[in-house]
Design a protein that fits this description.
This protein is of the alpha/beta class. The strands form four sheets. Strands 2-8-7-6-5-3-4 form a seven-stranded mixed sheet, sandwiched between helices. A four-stranded antiparallel sheet has the order 11-12-15-14. A two-stranded parallel ribbon has the order 1-13. It is globular.
Length: 402
């Protein structure tokens, strides 16, 4: 028996596991410390009442033979697929069919699993800094030597340049990972910018994997919420979305992936491949969770989740304004729940993390954990409690000042 040695090419520990371990060890040494977590992107507001009511009704249905539900369709029940289709696409002028939408147990799962349907020899373009799942899962699949790293720095406004530039030796990217609003930097992308990527992908017969998990934080219409707002994208892009940040489903787990029928490579439709993969490896999302997701789109559900989202948006403003006033340079926080904090000179991302924990009892996420270009930054999340967030900002201001 031989192991998959690609796993040995990964960092020893997953980023957020390391952050949690360091926090736990500090707490054990200092049990009196009042630690405030602004690290992991986990929501703290309760699931809204409209969704809870729908779940209660679904649980009651499961108790009666005539309304009991066993294995769900691997792609999702018609009622949720039709709701997603209408609200997220048809009402926005984007036409799809429901067989192009695949419900899942979250965007993280789909981001990691989508690589199953691609050849190991594909060249993969990944931003740096980046959500670790993109890079790690491609290494797991054996693509370590086929990865193009696209630096996202202050100099290029945290927006990657196209992989055909000389900086990448003229390599063509077969698969391109894009995430906007971006995790961790909070950067947003204009339609004009995304059009360049769509044109590149179509010209080079490449595929864009577009992570739109934070689209709910775009509210003013200035930036696209979906890659499919860009002409030509249906022939080159897969979109992955989540209910985790939009509706607080981090503990409930639900998301979806759109695979247009127009996506065809080597004479094979990716829609068929993804459907085949899901039918084999995935048993679908529970009926109770699917009814919960459906309730998100009701008038009452939309009103209630916006109240929670506004709460997090205000938290982001409190962090951004407070730390900017203290002399820090901050990015993100407007179309994103994350503040990308530039740390003072003389610190590394991890040494700043350590001092923040020891002196302020505040936990962030070191930028270097998202990639080499993240060195010199720290990510803070707006998903915490309002009063605790204010306390954390005051502690940071008092310790670091200007």
């Amino acid at each position: 028996m031989k192991i998959n040695k690609n796993f040995l090419d990964l960092e020893q520990n997953y980023l957020f596991s390391t952050v949690a371990r360091k926090q736990r060890e500090f707490q054990e040494k200092h049990p009196e410390a009042d630690i405030i977590k602004l690290s992991i992107g986990d929501v703290t507001r309760p699931i809204c009442p409209a969704v809870i009511d729908a779940m209660h009704k679904a649980v009651d249905e499961m108790s009666k033979p005539e309304t009991f539900h066993g294995y769900p369709p691997e792609q999702g029940y018609d009622f949720i697929l039709e709701t997603i289709l209408k609200h997220d696409y048809l009402d926005r002028g984007i036409s799809f069919k429901k067989n192009e939408i695949f419900l899942s147990d979250g965007a993280k799962s789909d981001c990691g699993n989508i690589g199953d349907i691609f050849n190991v020899d594909n060249t993969v373009a990944i931003c740096d800094p980046v959500y670790p799942v993109y890079l790690d899962t491609n290494i797991m699949n054996g693509r370590k030597n086929n990865i193009i790293i696209m630096p996202c720095t202050e100099e290029n406004d945290f927006l990657p340049v196209l992989p055909s530039d000389d900086a990448f030796g003229g390599k063509v990217a077969d698969i391109i990972y894009l995430c906007f609003p971006n995790n961790p930097t909070g950067t947003v992308a204009s339609k004009e910018y995304l059009q360049k990527w769509v044109d590149y992908a179509n010209a080079h017969k490449s595929l864009i994997l577009f992570d739109s998990a934070y689209e709910a934080f775009i509210t003013d219409g200035k930036y696209p919420k979906s890659i499919y707002e860009i002409p030509g994208s249906k022939t080159c892009a897969i979109e992955i979305r989540s209910f985790s940040k939009t509706a607080g489903f981090t503990g409930l787990r639900c998301g979806y992936t759109v695979v247009p029928e127009e996506l065809e490579f080597e004479g094979t439709k990716l829609n068929y491949l993804w459907n085949r993969r899901q039918c084999t490896k995935f048993n679908g999302v529970s009926y109770i969770t699917q009814k919960a997701a459906e309730a998100v789109y009701t008038d009452e559900g939309q009103k209630q989740i916006q109240e929670n989202l506004n709460y997090y948006r205000e938290n982001a403003k409190i962090i951004f304004d407070g730390l900017t006033a203290a002399g820090f340079k901050c990015y993100g926080g407007i179309y994103s729940p994350y503040i990308w904090l530039k740390i003072p000179e003389g610190y590394t991302s991890w040494s700043f993390f350590d001092e923040l924990l020891e002196k302020c009892n505040v936990v962030g996420t070191p930028g270097s954990g998202f990639g080499k270009s993240g060195e010199g930054y720290l990510r803070l999340t707006a998903f915490g409690d309002r009063e605790r967030t204010k306390v954390a900002v005051e502690r940071i201001k008092n310790h670091f000042g200007k």
